[in-house]
Amino acid sequence: MSESEATPAAGGKRGRKQLRPDPADGPVAAFAYRLCELKESAGDPSYDRMRTDFGAAASKSALSSAARGQDLPSWETTWEYVRSLAVGALGQDADTVRREWSRRWEHARAAAEQPSAPEAEPAVRRDAPAAEPDPESGPDRARRRGWILAGTGAAVVLVAVVLGWYLLSGPERPIPGDASVMLGETVPDDTPIPAGTSFVKSWDIKNVGRVPWTGRYLEQTGERVGDAECTAPQRVWIRDTPAGEQVRITVPVVAGEKTGQCKIAWKMVDEHGELFFPDQALRPVFFDIRVTPGSA
To answer: In this structure, is the dihedral angle defined by the CA atoms of residues 47, 251, 41 and 82, taken in order, positive or negative?
Structure first.
């Protein structure tokens, strides 16, 4: 199966989880929503930890405000927010991350600076001459209005039916020309991991198809193998990956105290959890380790 990039960091004290802004509220809220996605894919570290462990050179209040979606943060604050997570926590390439998020920030700024649509002129001006009486009044006019309203209602119903069909049926999967191959991975199968410790699992995936990857995630399949318990993100974000390029996807994992086998698998999905590669013959990516007794 094929998947792409994002890795969280395990551990760390966490406070109340910040609510994500609604991306439908405008370009600034949509940009903040993407920042929250990045933070969650990196294991949702606290803002204090982003500064102390991952080197964010911005105040806690500035980092928190950036993800609130009320005002567009400066590029300097944005970069410290993104760099600490994407580069510091997830180990992604700094130049690639900077180019990608600089483009997103510029797009959000340009969209936010678009002037609002001017208010419509009033239908009747106070200094306008009085309207001539309508010669077409009475039952004929009322009948015509009835037909117009009925036709408009039918059109609305038709649009609703078509939209509902599209939402229920969803996009065609698999997408023609969409393909991937795994080039390598870290932490080989059956690697011994002491109980209570953390590690990072990475997969190098190449987009070998003709379809650019955008808005994709790795999500756990729900199938776990083994008696040991491991903690890992339910979903991680995959950075945008053009056709022909490769991406490193990483997830932080914490081994539990119980010893034994621990295997967790992920597959590529969209934001609604729909599989991009629904064919069951395509194997998910996974880690499969042995949790051993921790050091005394």
So the answer is: positive
